Amino acid sequence: MKKLILLLLLISVFSCSKNPNEFIPHINGYWEIDEVTLSDGTKRDYNFNDMIDYIEVTDSLSGFRRKLKPNLFGTFETSKSEERFNIKIENDSLNIYYKTPYAEWKETILNANESQLVILNNTNKDVYIYKRYESLDLDLETE
Predict the structure, then answer these.
(1) 20 neighbors 109 (Cβ within 8 angstroms)
(2) 70-81 b/e with 16+ CB inside 10 Å = b?
(3) Coil, strand or helix: which one is 79?
């Protein structure tokens, strides 16, 4: 019960204090999972990610998310499969509606800025905290 109250408090703090229209310009880009808080309150930190998400939103508030695998050459490998979505502002929340040939689901953006993206999966109630992806700097020059 404590964990549910904590999750609801987290959601209300993020959703009440921000204007969801302000999140939209920050969604585009390359994101990697930093931390996940599961619905039971358990936290998982992600110190290393071999996959990142590329998210693109159009002016019509539709878009897609694609999984990418960075490689050592600064480029990405992808399966080219995409999860298409539509964004809607509902009850002061920014919701993403996904639809694939296999499933449909809804996520709520709790916060989005230049460096962080916080998303609630409405099905399993897990909260995903993403950070902007930064490629590895493998320049090993010595002075």
Answers:
(1) yes
(2) beeeeebeeeee
(3) strand
Q: Which of 108, 111, 112 is nearest to 125 (CA)?
A: 108
Buried b (16+ CB within 10 A) or exposed e, 113-137: eeeebbbbeeeebbbbbbebbeeee
Q: What is the pLDDT along the chain (143 residues), one digit of tens a residue?
A: 555 555 555 555 554 557 899 999 999 999 999 999 999 999 999 988 889 999 999 989 999 999 999 888 778 898 778 999 999 999 999 999 999 999 999 999 999 999 999 999 999 999 999 999 987 665 555 55
Ordered by where they begin, the domains of the chain are 2-132 (2.40.128.280)
Q: What is the pTM of this model?
A: 0.80
Which two tokens mark 35?
A: 């931390």
